[in-house]
Amino acid sequence: MSTLDPSSERAAIARPPTSREQVLDLSFRWATRVLAGLSALLVVFIVLLIAKQALPAIEKFGPQFITGTKWDAGKNQFGILPEIFGTVVSSLLGVVLATVFGVAVAVFLTEEFIPRWLETILKNVITLLAAIPSVVYGLWGIFVVIPAIRPACNWLHEHFGWFPLFSTPLVSVGMMPAAFVLAIMILPTITAISRDAIAAVDPLLREAAFGMGATRWETILGVTIPTSKRGIYGSIVLGLGRAFGETMALAMLVGSVNVISPSLFSPANTLAALLANRFPEAASRIDLGALMYTALVLLLLTLIANVLGEFICTRMSPDAVTANLRTTRKEVNP
Amino acid sequence: VTTHAPPSSMFSSAPATGDVDLGQLDRSLRRPRTLINYGLSILCGILAILAAVPLLSVLIMLIVRGGARLSVALFTQLPPAAGMVGGGIGNAIVGTVLVVFIGALITIPLGVLGGVYLAEINPEGRGASVVRFCAKLLTGLPSILAGVFAYTTVVLATGRFSPLAGGIALAVLMLPTIMLTTEEAIRAVGDEMREAAIGMGATQAEVVWHILIPRALPAILTGILLAIARGAGETAPLLFTLTFSDFWLRGHFMEPTASLAVLIYNFSKSPFANQKEIAWAASLVLVLLVLVLNLGAQALSQRARRMVGART
Fold first, then answer.
1. Does the ipTM exceed 0.90?
2. Is the CB of residue A141 less than 8 Å from the CB of residue A149?
3. A-B contacts (CB, under 8 Å)
4. Backbone conformation region of residue A181, classed left if phi is above 0, alpha if psi is from -120 to 50, else beta
5. Least CB-CB distance to A42: which of B172, B268, B280?
6. Given this model, what pLDDT does residue A297 score?
7. Which among A323, B24, B224, B289 is placed 20 to 30 Å from A203, CA to CA?
8. Torsion angle (degrees, nearest 10) of CA A85, A91, A92, A96
9. CA distance B285 to chain A (A)
10. What angle do CA B148, B153, B155 make, to 5 degrees?
11. What residues in B contact A144, CB-CB < 8 Å?
């Protein structure tokens, strides 16, 4: 209302917030705080909810649920040892395969082996691998992977059948095709995280190794990978967490048979596949309770893997090495 | 001083001088370390190429087996019953779009505002690091457990399978992607703009709404598109929240509904050739949908990089 000085015109643009704006600001900040808090609470809520639903079954079956080997809803007999075995074995097989390929691709992408444009293509291929829905991988596994690997698997069974790993033939579905498809699905996770870890290695370390006359692979195996090994370990553990929880490809490929067999070609079952197969037809309350118990075991398994993976990734990144190097450099060259 | 690899190379130009063997500096294929070097490079290349084979195989199969059934009828007709010929996936496409839409509607406000909190309102606080950690854990949550969550909260409460239950399951799975990409997007906006706005007397809310979100929008949309792409392909949580239906949606949203993902799963186990073909065609449609979303996300993220780049 007053025109005291020439700066008043500018003051109309730059002015302190009105009380209405301050109220809006405060409520906006609280809104973001509440929503962020809700998202964090969601994790806790999911854990508590599943635990609560599983409680009756936990009281009824106790730890025998974990060690039991039979799942017979008719007789109210529930045990998930074969599923735990199948989950761990298929995930470990998948992770071993995915690590070999994933770390190779990560090295290939970061160490300037190939021209930039080829690097971009390979990177996009890996991203697209992650984008394809797992149910499509399951379909592909049934119609492509199983027919493709069956002759080799059965040849191994015929000639080395005495060896426990090959003691059964691959009829159709089984552990091997499931682990194979699982490996493809976690390859992008392992590649992406270990690539970041390798790329974060200080170029100075690499140059120093080259300067001392090391060949490219002596540098990679002796300097780059040891420096970034924590990120790589982290990626493997996170990949394992992903593999534990992967459902569709396994529900379609692993066979859903409750057996514990050392053979790679035998059908098996996993926790997630059991849930996918039994949940839609859960009839009774006790049935549902047993499934909730299974869900809780799966949840704990993946939570442990994920917390461990995140912990390894954040606590033990190559930053520590780099920071160390930087201080050394400063001491030498102030 | 190395003990192996005697300086026997024919190409070594200089003889040994003193204790330093200059021949060691020559690069010769005869030396084990050079050979190992090449061998490992080739091995690594082969592994990298092999890693790309599955994607090619999947794409070829989708085009060959799924493309065979691509027609108008595929999009307008209902899924064929056992033993029948023809049919399509019309209701499944509608169902997938609906359930992903519901999921996105729930999760976008939560994810974007949560991301704003992490990046801007309280970036260094203890609360933020807890939220960030929880979001990362949520990234690793098995999708089937999101289904169990939606089943107990919605299906048991309402007594029926519905797109709402499916949407809530997908919302849980989409949330961390949106939240973490929003955080990164907002952090990438330069401090100059922030400081200029605050200097003009803008409140933090105004800075966020008028400066940060518009500036970071392409990058935020990238995250949203990626999350939607992930949601569209999810199957496991839909098996017992959405289940399946052989009919068109009847207008009210509280009934079992078809979706592409569950259709593929159901028909993959079918003994009938026609249903298997439909499964492949549905996979092709689903993968095309997901790829388009991914390409859109990539185009947007390039734009976002240009916008951030323009600032410096």
1. no
2. no
3. 268
4. alpha
5. B172
6. 94
7. B24
8. 160
9. 11
10. 80
11. 57-58, 61
